Amino acid sequence: MAVKLSQSMKQTQGMMITPQLQQAIKMLTLTHLEMTNVIAKEMTENPMLEELDPNETLNPADNKLEKIENENAEAKAENFDETPIFEKDDFDWGKYLDHFNSNSAQSAPSMATRDPDEQFNFENIVSGSKDLKDHLLEQIGVENYPDYVFTVADAIVNNLNPSGYLEVSRDEIVKELSISKEEFEETLEIILRLDPIGCGSSSLEECLLNQARILGYHSELLKDLIINHLQRIKNKQFDKIAEETGKEKDLILSAVELLKELNPRPGLSVAGEETQFVVPDIFVQKVGKEFVVQVNDDGIPRLKINQLYQKMLNNANLGDDEAKNYFQEKMKSAFWLLKSIQNRQKTIHKVAKCIVSRQQEFFHKGALFLKPMILKDIADEIGMHESTVSRVTNNKYMHTPIGVFELKYFFNAGLGGKAGGVDISNEALKVKLKKIIDSENPLKPFSDQKLSTLLSQDDIKVARRTVAKYREMLGIESSSKRKKRA
Q1: Of 414, 335, 421, 418, residue with least CA distance to 374
Q2: Residue that wins the pLDDT comparison between 461 and 224
Q3: Which of 386, 407, 428 is the last residue of a domain?
């Protein structure tokens, strides 16, 4: 059979994601800060967009354009069906600043001396965190040492890793600073004795030995364990250690208890993690006996279409086709951005309002009363697809009277509902499990099977394996380890 090549025309229907739809979808996934950055970038690139004056009222008729649907795309909270929570600011900032000025060494300037157009900067009253370098150099700075000590100390401290270990060779520092080995060793000893003890060591063994020496643990057995048996101690091979050292097991265990008092990574006790600030996308406020939802509009500029460019575009005598096409594209882009912002805010409000409505007991009584809920439950109630709800809840946070929660926190499958048991969320199970373990006798801790039995008394049917899984997620040791620790 011969194979022929031919051409034919065929008409079919298909779905295509337009750039405008892609923008709307992307806008749903953005956090509050990311969205404000996108808007700021668009305002610098699109001359059709401008920010409304705070005292200006938008006329919907101004946002009409030929060949584009007449729609009010103004992104402001007044357009949404929400109950305003903060109608006025009753907080007396003057008294607050006066109180702060009288109680702080680094005071913020009073309102009387500030420019009225300048917003109050909260960064002025947030304490900065110290890193390991600052912590060590600050201790050296209060002492009366020779000049070379400060120079060498600065070189050592600047070459410490977060754990407090010296990452370069000692000879390298000696050569670079053209100092004697005695001057280096003298300075290093000063640093080793600072808080936290042991910073400046080159290895784990050296760090532990330095700490034992400085703390006065004069034990040859402890020294031997650090140098030769750390791996066996980690694997709890105490019988093997006793056999090799010729010491009794009780003496080995006593030396191990001393070893536990030493810090293998002293620098981490100072170098804390950087604080990550969260800007909530939703605020929930208790008004009477109900909880009211409001989308965070703070920092989102109220936008409108630039009237001058719109009139130029509507001018039929605009002869330059290239300029006209440019204005039309920018106008469409501006309208779609405004529409995407409005749709985003409305969708977030719908989802948050539905979550709050379903989780009333949680907001009144706490995590123990968090109900099982999945994305499909919210999607069916608000008439949207699960993927849309997933995008809305991704990296979004809700500020409530009982704390700040990620929206994903409220979605969890039910447990314990089989065989006639009560359905409970995994977060509620964690709270209940921790409460039972906290109430146990430390000398007779509950096994996982016993915990499963105790939960079943409250009609929560969960298997022993499930109990073990959530116990480990809470960072709680097994019953045997808890009993040994007690």
Answers
A1: 414
A2: 224
A3: 407
DSSP H or E run through 379 = helix 375-382
CATH number for the domain spanning 430: value is: 1.10.10.60
Encode pLDDT of 292-321 as tens digits: 999 988 878 888 887 777 777 776 555 667
Tell me the residue range of the domain where 225 lies.
132-269
CB atoms under 10 Å from CB of 355, counted, come to: 26
Asked if the bond preceding 196 is cis, omega within 30° of 0, the reply is yes
* Whether 284 contacts 291, CB under 8 Å: yes
pLDDT tens-digit map of 127-152: 455 688 888 999 998 888 888 999 99
| Residue 129 DSSP label | P
DSSP notation for 420-474: GPPPEEHHHHHHHHHHHHHTSBTTBPPPHHHHHHHHHTTT----HHHHHHHHHHT
Domain end position, chosen among 407, 440, 455: 407
List the alpha helices (DSSP H) in 11-74: 19-29, 32-45
Give the single-character DSSP code of 111.
G
Q: Is residue 175 part of a domain?
A: yes
Which residues, at least 6 apart from 7, have a Cβ–Cβ distance to it below 8 Å?
none
Nearest partner of 426 among 440, 410, 406, 438, judged by Cα: 410
Nearest to 328 by CA among 144, 66, 85, 31: 66
| Backbone phi, psi, residue 44, to 5° | -75, -25
Q: Do residues 350 and 82 make contact, with C-beta atoms less than 8 angstroms apart?
A: no
- Do the Cβ atoms of 130 and 195 come closer than 8 Å? no
Q: State pTM to two decimals.
A: 0.55
What is the Cα–Cα distance from 333 to 73, expressed in whole angstroms?
12
Domain assignment present for 397: yes
Confidence of residue 350 (pLDDT cuts 50, 70, 90): very high
pLDDT in the model for residue 299: 76
For the chain, the domain total comes to: 3
Q: Which two tokens stand for residue 327?
A: 């204005």
